[in-house]
């Protein structure tokens, strides 16, 4: 009977945590995703819903795989030990999934919005491509790079003859 009670408690706590964290991430992630997608609110909402569904599927699948325990649970102390270790592992997985999402979307955002170089503080020129894989330079007219607003222009170069 102690095994069934431990399983029930684990499932209740895990599902509750998953729903609470998923809804908090959904609410807080809207603004971040809108920024990532250049202010496109409908795209941010759609991606947010997809991320939440994926979050629920991954986490509840993990809970389903880890609900069983090896051996017998013979005392309340052992039941609490099993329960808390399983919940601790689940919290680590939740944190890892959240961190992975933040890292991926931050990288995506940096690629979309050229900004100042973190080392020098100078604006970085946008990459030039043709749209074809492996073609580094676009044919046709060249768009010149300009420094970010508020930064002094570079010193003029001397012509070499």
Largest beta-sheet details: none
- Count of runs of 4 or more consecutive helical residues: 3
What distance separates the N and C termini?
Answer: 91 Å
Give the structural class.
Answer: mainly alpha
Query: How many beta strands in the DSSP annotation?
Result: 0
Oligomeric state, counting identical vs distinct chains: single chain
What would your notes on this structure say?
With 161 residues, the protein is mostly helical. It has a domain at 2-112. Helices cover 61% and strands 0% of the residues. It has helices at 2-36, 41-66, 76-112. It is elongated, with a radius of gyration of 25 Å. The termini are far apart. The model has no long low-confidence stretch (mean pLDDT 76).
Element layout with pairings:
Layout: H1 2-36, H2 41-66, H3 76-112
Helix pairs in contact: 1-2, 1-3, 2-3
Concise account of the structure shown:
The protein starts with a helix and ends in a 49-residue tail after the last helix. The protein has helices at about 1-35, 40-65, 75-110. It is mainly α and about 160 residues long.
